[in-house]
Amino acid sequence: MEIKQFKDEPLAHYSYALVSEGEMAIVDPARNPIPYYQYAEQQNARIVAVLETHPHADFVSSHLQIQQETGAKIYINPEAGPAYEYQPLEDGQRLKIGKAEIHALATPGHSPDSLSYYATDGQQHVLFSGDTLFIGDVGRPDLREKAGNQTALRKELAAMMYQTIQTKFNDLPDETIIYPAHGAGSLCGKNLSDADSSTLGQERQFNWAFKNQDQETFVAEILKDQPFIPHYFGFNVELNRKGAAKLSKALAKVPILLDVQGPLEEHLVVDTRDAMEFKKGHLPGSINIMGRSETDKFETWLGSVVEPDQKFYLVVDRIENLEELLERTAKIGYENQVVAALTLDLPQNEPAQLNLQDFRDRQENYHILDVRNESEVRAGKIFDQSLHIPLPELNQRIKEVPTDKPVVVHCAGGYRSAAGSSLVQ
Length: 425
What we know:
By secondary structure, this protein is of the alpha/beta class.
C-alpha cells in the first residue's frame, strides 16, 4: 500500500492517493485532477475510486471530473445528498483497493455527514480523517448552520464531535498514521499544527480534544475563538454537493483582454498585482487582492471580500501568470464570475507616501482603521483610538469609515491592509 500526499499551499489543503496492486483511490481531490493522473501514470495504476470525506466548504473538489474522465466510483456518505452518480458508504461499510481494505467511519462534528476512512493492508494502518481530526486540533463545528443538504447548529455539531472523538477511534491502533485534509493556515480549524501527519497515539497524548473532559467543557472550548467564515464557504458546500464543471472547460470560457488602458464596464475589478505596482496605477474601483506567489492566500481573501454572486474583472501582472491566477480563482469556484482576465497598460505615477514621523507625533490628525480579525484585536489593539472593521466585513461596512481626515489602514503583516486601503480608496 503506497500513500502519496498532495499539498495545496495557499489553502493548506491535503489530498491523497492510495495505491495497491495496480489500483488507486484518491481522497478529497483538489480542483485540478492532473497531478493525480500523473501519479497514477507513474505508478502504472488505474484510478478506481474517489473517497470524499464530506462536501468541502473551503475548496472545490474534482470528484465529478475524475469520475467522468476515468470511470472511477465516487464514495460518499449518502446523508450529504450528492446530486451526481455515487456509491453510498455508511458507518462500518468497507471496500477494497487492491489488497488494502478501507473502512468507512461516520465521524460527524465538523459536518453532520463527515466520514473518515481507515485503511489497512495488514502491515500499515492509516486514517484519512478529513476535517474531523487535525494534527493538534479538530474541525470547527460552525460551518453548516446555513449550508449543505444537512444543516445543523454549531452546538449540536460540537456535541457530535465530542462523541466522535470519545468513541470512533477507540479500536484503532496507536501506530495508525493520521492524514488530515488540512494543516496550519486553514480556516477549517483554529489551532492546526504545521505538521502534515501524525499518529493516533501522538494525538491521543497531545491533542486537546482527547483530554479527559466532559461534553460541556469540550463544547465550550471548540466554539471559542473560531476564525471568521469567508463568504464563499456555503457556496462551495453546495457546489461540491452538485459537482463542479471540468476545470479546463470552465477556464476556457473566460475572455482575455491585453494591455487595457481605460475604465471598463461597471463591474468590480480584482487586481492581483503587488501593492506597490497597484499604487503606481490601477483601474478605477479596483480592489488589491495580491496573488504574487503561493505564500499569498489569494483564494481565501478573494472569497472573503468578494461575494459568490459578484461579477469581477481579474487583473494580472503579466500574461505568463494569467493561467495560474485563473486556476486559483477556480479553486474556490469563482471562475464563472470573471467577466474577463486582463493585463494593464497604464501610466505609472509615484504613489503618495505616508509621513511616518507626522503620523507618530500627531495620530489625532488621522483616522486609523484596523482590518485584523476579531480574535487578533481581542488579543491586543495596536492603536488605542483605531476603528476596527475586519477585512471580510469592510466592503459591507465601508460607510462607517470617516473621511474628514486621512485614513491609515493596518493589519498584522501588510497583505490585508493593502486590500483594505484599496477598498477605502
